[in-house]
Design a protein that fits this description.
The structure holds 2 protein chains of 2 kinds.
Chain A: H1 4-9, H2 17-29, H3 34-44, H4 48-57, E1 69-74, H5 77-81, H6 84-95, E2 108-113, E3 125-127, E4 130-132, H7 140-145
Parallel strand pairs in A: 1-2
Antiparallel strand pairs in A: 1-3, 3-4
Helix pairs in contact in A: 2-3, 3-4
Chain B: E1 2-6, E2 9-13, H1 19-25, E3 49-52, E4 59-60, E5 71-73, H2 77-93, H3 108-115, E6 139-141, H4 151-160, E7 166-168, E8 175-177, H5 194-198, E9 204-206, E10 219-224, E11 233-239, E12 242-247, H6 264-268, E13 283-286, E14 289-292, H7 295-313, E15 318-321, H8 328-342, E16 347-348, H9 351-354, H10 356-366, E17 384-388, H11 392-395, H12 397-410, E18 413-417, E19 430-432, H13 439-452, H14 458-464, E20 465-466, H15 468-475, H16 480-487, H17 491-503, E21 507-511, H18 513-516, H19 521-534, E22 545-547, H20 554-559, H21 576-586, H22 598-606, E23 612-616, H23 620-623, H24 627-635, E24 639-644, E25 656-659, E26 668-671, E27 676-680, H25 693-703, H26 713-722, H27 732-735, E28 740-741, E29 765-766, E30 785-790, H28 806-811, E31 816-819, H29 821-827, E32 834-838, E33 843-850, E34 858-862, E35 891-897
Parallel strand pairs in B: 1-5, 15-16, 15-23, 17-18, 17-21, 18-19, 20-29, 21-22, 23-24, 24-25, 30-34, 31-33
Antiparallel strand pairs in B: 1-2, 3-4, 3-5, 6-9, 7-8, 10-11, 11-12, 13-14, 13-25, 26-27, 27-28, 30-35, 31-34, 32-33, 32-35
Classes of the chains: A alpha+beta, B alpha/beta.
């Protein structure tokens, strides 16, 4: 994994580079660690409070620790009609976490999302932004076992 | 000019005027929530919307510049509807606890809901809750009442410069938070309470004032703060003859220095006023125990003892310690009491321990030993600020805010020289972390660069100064490379600092006890003066040699002649004409013999030359160097009389104790560090039998056969100004509002915010050729560290007041010694571990605080704590030869694991 300092420093000369740095950090770690926010504040010459404000401004960015794999369950109407609720319950049961939480081993984080544009094969989940189609409660263990 | 019509009225405003101001000029009452005249515009709350004819939508008047021909309606049906919707949206989220809310009656949300008849919200429903207890003792944060106006965020950033808070998340979940949504105490918050000041609702309130009275029901008495020499004004909130809070008056005409901004001590440190520890009756010591006494008994006894000593041992066996905390009027009477009643010039006060070297050094160079410029220069006019030996943001917080504002908003350059990496150091353009006590070497090095690179002000030197050549010769050898090993500062940093200071348009030097409290204190001050003269940075706005004085009225105590060598306004006791003038004014013959300083009085008491001592509001048992030595000296006195508001460690040693008034109980004046004389006003009665300090002095004088009688403080001021040229033009009436800077020699004189503009007080500015001399105590194998002492943001002087302010003491209950983590590892100690700190004088036990703001060979501790008193360690024998100030800043010390 790349060092957070290197990621931040590589963007330090860019105007407004702090936002790009946060994107890059999230790509690398799936969230933005506290020490990276502190470092970014220093490098981009803003207060820590302001850097934290920026990091929490965008709902896409996360300052909470997240897992290696981010599972996002679509909660829009087409998936809902196709049984998204049962899928969520199955994932929660299988992983032993609730929506918004991360498994103790740091492997999976479960979140909700609006429509991901794959309504031809509902219910849909994404894992690290890759869609998985026609999910059902029964298929959940098998689908998740593919992620090591 | 712009012409427009507002509510049918045609008005004219200057170009660039915002509609909000134009509307208010036209008499319209525009409601605002996020708008604050002192803060960056946010334009986010939409309460100030108005209708501009021909525009498709309502406009937020606070961010819309007025334009020619605009036709504005400020209360049209659309405007009222929009404001109503905004209020309903806010009400949907606001926790209505109005009956118990601290802001009830002074809440904008309440006012506007009343004004627009908003009784309930159409949008009400379950929303997120934000309240979590923040365990600090100062500020209550209830974000269930927050309306997200962000005034607190902007005040924190723009007024204080603390940058502790911001907005976390957006939408329904948005709230104000510190980084990582933690506690205020873990952030960069300095608990100034500017956020409380600007909060328009009850989301941010004072925990100290909670439950004591709603601000709108309290009487408000404007007065001047009793902590530090900045001279901030604020309103004491009074209910049933008790101070129940402090609020800001943000009008520049009444709060000229701070415009309402305060620090943690000013805003939250007032409850000592009603501490149960206050002295309420005179006390007399019998068989080692105090008993209560009547005023007559105590005063008669005190007078008799003083009279006996005077008759038996002569006037010069008596001494008076006056006080930098009491008023000018009381200082005037205290020195008059010493001179006219006791017949001695043995009168001094704790300026001896903080800025005696400023009075001596600036006096020698310029002719008048005081801060040359005014405080607001730091925020506005200075293009470069050179801070040396001043932890400004902790010791003069409001001045610290101004420096930060200038650096962040106007781009002023900041050069900091300090043995510790202070808050200001961390934002400086150049930071020189030099070895304590090498100030002269460092500044000579900077001046060497300025001369070598020819970036000096030749014209100024030629026309306004003398003795330049002798000075230049001495400085010649102090090249950056020569002083690098002495100071520990890289030669290149010294060059950079010198260039920035010399080449900026207006450069101000700002210093404090880091410069003065050395055995070379006067030399250090003279070096500051040399630097300013060398570059012509004196006598203009934004320049100067600015000694930041530590206590509320330390400038005034000096001005009033509570010094052994001078009467008021620095008129020498040795000058026969001056002596004659005061003999005539006071109707008594006076001594021409120079009196003893504090640091001479203590050994004189020890050796029996001083027999009787009258201490007014000072606490040498904590404040003076080598306390064991002080204790022995005080015990050796025939008579010690102490007048104070608490039974201080010094009062405990007294034979007789008089209970005086706190600043909240008295009328009078304080003179701040910038020579500004301001009023203090009586807000409440003193406790029990306590009396106005000046009255006690008068009653004692009367018993000693010298009649003193005044109806009030103003009468004393009136007498004082007849013998004090620099105050001659001041009256209480003139001091109302913004106050006056001395010199103010006549009643039509506007006062003098900047000294030495055309010529120096002494004529020409005098360069001093100053060689570097090492501090008296250097580290060795037995005492390997350099120990420095100083102040904390959260306490004041000997702690007699601040440690009885509950919140301040809860936040910082104990002393600590700061040590670099590498050094700590070497000694084998962990953070928070109790250690023994020793010097050749003694040792104390206290917690270690591991921090990299000090270098590996330096330790730092605070002097406010009598139970772990820094001055058990400091050296009473390492004195500046000119002014007698002790070397508080350098002792050789040892730190041990217990």
């Amino acid at each position: 994994m790349a060092n957070y300092k290197d990621i931040i420093n590589s963007l330090q000369d860019k105007q407004g580079g702090i936002i790009e740095a946060f994107h890059a950090l999230q790509r690398e770690y799936n969230y933005i660690p506290e020490e990276a926010i502190t470092e970014a504040a220093k490098v981009f010459g803003v207060s820590q409070a302001q850097a934290y404000g920026v990091a929490t401004f965008y709902s896409y960015l996360s300052v909470e620790k997240r897992g290696k794999y981010i599972i996002r369950m679509c909660e829009s109407a087409p998936c809902h009609v196709a049984g998204a609720d049962a899928v969520i319950r199955a994932i929660e049961k299988h992983l032993g976490i609730k929506v918004g939480e991360t498994t103790a081993d740091g492997k999976f984080t479960l979140e909700l999302t609006e429509c991901v544009g794959q309504c031809q094969a509902t219910p849909v989940i994404t894992v690290n932004s890759e869609p998985v189609f026609n999910v059902s409660a029964v298929k959940v263990p098998e689908i998740l076992s593919a992620y090591k | 000019m712009i012409n427009l019509t507002i509510d049918g009225q045609e008005i004219q405003v200057p170009k660039g005027t915002m509609l909000l101001d134009a509307c208010r000029q036209a008499g319209a009452d525009i409601p605002t929530l996020c708008y604050d005249p002192d803060l960056r515009l946010a334009g986010s709350c939409r309460m100030c919307v108005v209708e501009a004819k021909g525009r498709p939508a309502l406009v937020a008047s606070c961010v819309m510049p007025a334009e020619n021909g605009m036709v504005i309606e400020t209360e049209s049906p659309d405007v009222v509807e929009a404001r109503t919707v905004v209020l309903e949206l806010l009400a949907a989220r606001h926790k209505f606890e109005c009956p118990t809310c601290e802001s009830d009656g002074s809440c904008k949300l309440q006012d506007y809901m009343y004004r627009y008849g908003v009784k309930e919200s159409r949008f009400a429903g379950e929303g997120p809750h934000f309240y979590t207890e923040d365990p600090n003792p100062f500020i209550e944060r209830d974000y269930d009442k927050c309306i997200m106006c962000t005034r607190c965020v902007r005040a924190c950033e723009e007024i204080t410069g603390a940058q502790a808070i911001n907005i976390e998340d957006r939408g329904h979940h948005a709230k104000i938070a510190t980084p990582f949504d933690g506690k205020l105490a873990d952030s960069t918050c300095v608990f100034c309470g500017q956020c409380v000041m600007v909060c328009p609702v009850g989301a941010l309130t004072s925990k100290v004032a909670a439950g004591k009275g709603k601000p709108f029901q309290n009487e408000k008495v404007l007065t001047t703060c009793t902590y530090c020499g900045t001279g901030c004004t604020f309103e004491l909130n009074v209910k049933n003859d008790k101070v129940v809070g402090v609020t800001s008056l943000r009008d520049e005409k009444w709060s000229p220095v701070n415009k309402g901004a305060l620090c943690v001590k000013g805003r939250f440190g007032w409850d000592f006023i009603h501490s149960p520890d206050r002295l309420t009756t005179p006390l007399i010591k019998e068989n080692g125990e105090f008993r209560e006494a009547s005023w007559d008994e105590a005063l008669d006894l005190a007078a008799k003892k003083l009279q006996d000593i005077k008759e038996k041992h002569g006037s010069d066996s008596l001494a008076v310690f006056s006080s930098a905390r009491v008023s000018n009027e009381e200082n005037y009477l205290a020195q008059k009491f010493a001179r006219a009643v006791l017949g001695t010039n043995n009168v001094d006060h704790c300026a001896r321990l903080c800025h005696a070297s400023s009075v001596a050094g600036i006096g020698a160079a310029f002719g008048s030993g005081a801060m040359t410029n005014s405080i607001n220069d730091f925020a506005q006019e200075a293009d470069c600020i050179f801070v040396i030996g001043s932890n400004t943001t902790e010791n003069h917080p409001v001045i610290g805010y101004k420096i930060k504002q200038n650096v962040r908003k106007k781009g002023a350059k900041l050069v900091v020289a300090d043995p510790r990496c202070t808050d200001l150091a961390s934002m400086a353009d150049v930071f020189m972390q030099f070895r304590p006590g090498t100030d002269v070497a460092l500044m000579n090095g900077m001046m060497n660069v300025i001369i070598a690179e020819n970036i000096l002000d030749q014209d100024f030197i030629a026309k306004r100064t003398e003795n330049f050549e002798a000075f230049k010769q001495v400085v010649e050898k102090y090249t950056p490379e020569y002083i690098e090993p002495i100071t520990g500062v890289a030669a290149e940093d010294i060059r950079k600092a010198a260039r920035i200071y010399a080449e900026s348009g207006a450069s101000a030097i700002c210093y404090s006890m880091g410069i003065t409290q050395h055995s070379t204190g006067t030399d250090n001050v003279k070096s500051c003066c040399n630097l300013a003269m060398l570059t012509g940075n004196i006598g203009r706005p934004g320049t100067g040699v600015n000694a930041l004085r530590g206590q509320n009225n330390v400038q005034g105590a000096c001005d009033m002649g509570a010094l052994p060598v001078v009467y008021t306004a620095y008129q020498a006791v040795t000058n026969p004409d001056i002596q004659a003038k005061f003999e005539k004014a006071w109707g008594v013959s006076l001594s021409p013999k120079i009196g003893l300083t504090i640091t001479q009085t203590i050994p004189a008491a020890l050796h029996g030359q001083i027999k009787g001592l009258f201490v007014l509001g000072e606490n040498p048992m904590v404040s003076d160097p080598d306390i064991a030595h002080v204790e022995e000296a005080l015990e050796n006195l025939d008579c010690l009389i102490v007048q104070d508001i608490f039974l201080t460690q010094t009062a405990e040693k007294a034979d007789i104790v008089f209970p005086g008034f706190s600043f909240a109980e008295k009328d009078g004046t304080f003179t701040s560090t910038e020579r500004k004389v301001q009023r203090i006003r009586r807000a409440v009665s003193g406790p029990g039998q306590s009396k106005d300090d000046w009255q006690i002095i008068c009653e004692l004088a009367n018993r000693l056969g010298y009649p003193m009688s005044y109806a009030n403080a103003e009468e004393i001021f009136e007498e004082m100004r007849t013998v004090t040229p620099s105050y001659a033009g001041m009256t209480y009436e003139r001091l109302e509002g913004i106050g006056l800077h001395w010199p103010c020699p006549a009643e039509d004189h506007p006062g003098t915010p900047i000294l030495h503009t055309v010529q120096f007080t002494r004529g020409l500015g005098l360069f001093h050729a100053v060689e570097f001399i090492e501090p008296v105590e250097l580290p060795n194998q037995e005492y390997p560290f350099i120990l420095s002492t100083g102040r904390s943001l959260y306490h004041y002087h000997t702690g007699s007041m601040s440690r009885r302010a509950e919140a301040l003491n809860a936040h910082m209950p104990d002393n600590v010694v700061q040590i670099n983590p590498v050094a700590a590892e070497r000694v084998g100690i962990a953070n928070d571990e109790v250690v023994r700190l020793s010097t050749r004088r003694g040792s104390i036990e206290l917690k270690a605080q591991l921090t990299d703001i000090v270098k590996e060979n330096v330790l730092f501790t605070y002097f406010h704590f009598s139970e772990a008193a820094a001055n058990r360690l400091t050296n009473a024998e390492a004195l500046d030869p000119v002014c007698g100030i002790p070397e508080f800043k350098v002792s050789a010390a040892r730190l041990e694991k217990l």
